[in-house]
Amino acid sequence: MTHYRITLLPGDGIGPEIMEVTVAVMKRVGEHLDLQFSFKEALMGGAAIDATGNPLPDETLEICKDSDAVLLAAIGGYKWDSLPNNLRPERGLLDLRAGLGLFANLRPAKILPQLIDASTLKREVVEGVDIMVVRELTGGIYFGQPKGIFTTETGEKRGVNTMVYSESEIDRIGKVAFEAARKRGSRLCSVDKANVLEVSQLWRDRITQLSADYPDVELSHLYVDNAAMQLVRSPKQFDTIVTGNLFGDILSDAAAMLTGSIGMLPSASLGASGPGVFEPVHGSAPDIAGQDKANPLAQVLSAAMMMRYGLNEPEAGDRLEQAVMTVLDANYRTGDIMSPGMKLVGCKEMGAALMQALG
Ligand code: NAD
């Protein structure tokens, strides 16, 4: 029996509710596939601020480092909104990424046939869309030096940020993207602005060189302006997209919204070695916390990504995804994805339906 140590960070708001459902379904899948999961829960976000004054206590980071994967729910809420930036729950997320060296962010955007009408785009445009955006997370213009607001000799202020990528940074994100493409449709589109930016020219050169190691993956390149256009014009042409931090920030949100339903979107953040962090894209939804109204499916799909990309247990990932499809086929809906004729359920009842689907 294979044994995995999972750190659970339920966080704030609806976090504990959706985490409870997810732990139950993971245990069930483990029983079926002879995988043993041991779970350790740790404090993060507002809950950690209340208990320790720190959104990511050292102890939490140590527990995360000492595990095979980290499953995070969501953090934040009204209660902590007025705190200074360095003490806010969101600071914990940045510290967690830095502490675990997570440089790759994987954001799938898959149209589920049962929820196709949630998209704002026409059915024929989005039907069958299944895209993975791989975004570089710790480099590029968000971190490049020099950065800041400086005063020139004439007394005018200048704001400066620097877009910079080194070969090693491009190579490591490129490898993650080629590997991810291999686990999917084996097509990778690299997005840059190589017609204008030198940093993008280097990006394009390195990704092209790297492709020699992945002859089974078909590589293409797009400029970011064209990529944005193509994403809404004809999104089905994409399988896996790899891009830098700034372009990825924008394109991953645009791709996600092709699906139209935030309660359904998982994500993964990976490092070179060590545990990855798997979490839903949505926040802590304080407006519905504690009311048994939360949709747990993005959290369950995040656990499926954890199985596939974090633990290399693709069959466990398949089973979790299949259970989500089964409950949607049976017309179970939480309020956020409700439509006429469907069966409105709460978080707990959705959990029970998932357990039944898993058998
Ligand atoms: P949000 O995603 O929490 O909520 C936006 C809307 O979507 C709300 O109406 C909410 O009820 C609904 N919603 C979100 N997830 C849902 C789910 N699983 N089921 C049903 N409905 C759902 O975003 P927000 O309101 O902008 O932020 C709330 C808090 O979450 C803030 O403190 C914010 O900083 C934090 N936040 C955290 C993360 C994270 O943990 N990674 C991400 C985004 C926002």
Automatic annotation (TrEMBL):
Positions contributing to NAD(+) binding: 77-90, 283-295
Cellular localisation: Cytoplasm
UniProt KW keywords: Amino-acid biosynthesis, Branched-chain amino acid biosynthesis, Cytoplasm, Leucine biosynthesis, Magnesium, Manganese, Metal-binding, NAD, Oxidoreductase
Residue numbers binding Mg(2+): D225, D249, D253
Binding-site list for substrate: R97, R107, R135, D225
Site entry: Important for catalysis: Y142, K193
Domain of life: Bacteria
Pathway the protein contributes to: Amino-acid biosynthesis; L-leucine biosynthesis; L-leucine from 3-methyl-2-oxobutanoate: step 3/4
Xref: PROSITE patterns: IDH_IMDH
Subunit structure: Homodimer.
NCBIfam families from the UniProt entry: leuB
Family named by the database record: Belongs to the isocitrate and isopropylmalate dehydrogenases family. LeuB type 1 subfamily.
Task performed by this protein: Catalyzes the oxidation of 3-carboxy-2-hydroxy-4-methylpentanoate (3-isopropylmalate) to 3-carboxy-4-methyl-2-oxopentanoate. The product decarboxylates to 4-methyl-2 oxopentanoate.
Name of the featured protein: 3-isopropylmalate dehydrogenase
Natural source organism: Drouetiella hepatica Uher 2000/2452
